[in-house]
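During data preparation, a discrete fold description was generated, and the record follows.
___
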Amino acid sequence: MVPQEKIAGLPIRIKFSKKGRLMYISHLDLSKTMQRIMVRADIDIWYSEGFNPQPRVVFAVPLPVGVESDCEYLDIKINSPMELDKIKNRISRNFPDEMRVLDVYVPEVKFKNIAYIDYTMKLFSPKITEQTATDIEKLFKNECNVTKITKSGAEKTVNLCEFIQSLKAEYNNGEIIINTVLCADSEKYLNPELLIEAIKKYLDILTSDTTDEYYSILRNKMLNADLTEFK
């Protein structure tokens, strides 16, 4: 453990969950919210330089709108020594109800080590049967092309199967539960919503009728290249 007197100036990693209605908050709004929380928690964090200094908060892989998470990561640096438990308590007191601090620690690895993300998806529709689980697994076996928006804003046709490390679908009491590990590094990142789009397109379930159909996506954990859990 790093001695408390040496905490100042070192990165401090905050692991937190974000669920419920807060899944509809964009990454930009979340960033602004976290900056305000640090100020309200009276944590003396580093600021950017220039004419308009801003609190320096660095996130891992941004969470897509509409996705819940049990494994969000945020790195900060502080100017004055402070105990990690005190940082955790102060942030926790200023978090909204649907966010929770899971851990606060000095990290040993950088965010660039993140290679994959583990997700759980749940789908419900009157059209779903036990065969649907098999159909979903077959859909993502070899080639499943969808349109993906690149960082530059251009449209590009991609084969989703090239971004899927593993995928298992099961039928359970009218629901389909999908456990999947998707690429998440800087070169090959896959938004889990694209899997939902492909299921809509190719399997004709999950239409726009939300009265009797729904789906959810939960980010469980981030993984290193060797599939061990990122910390």
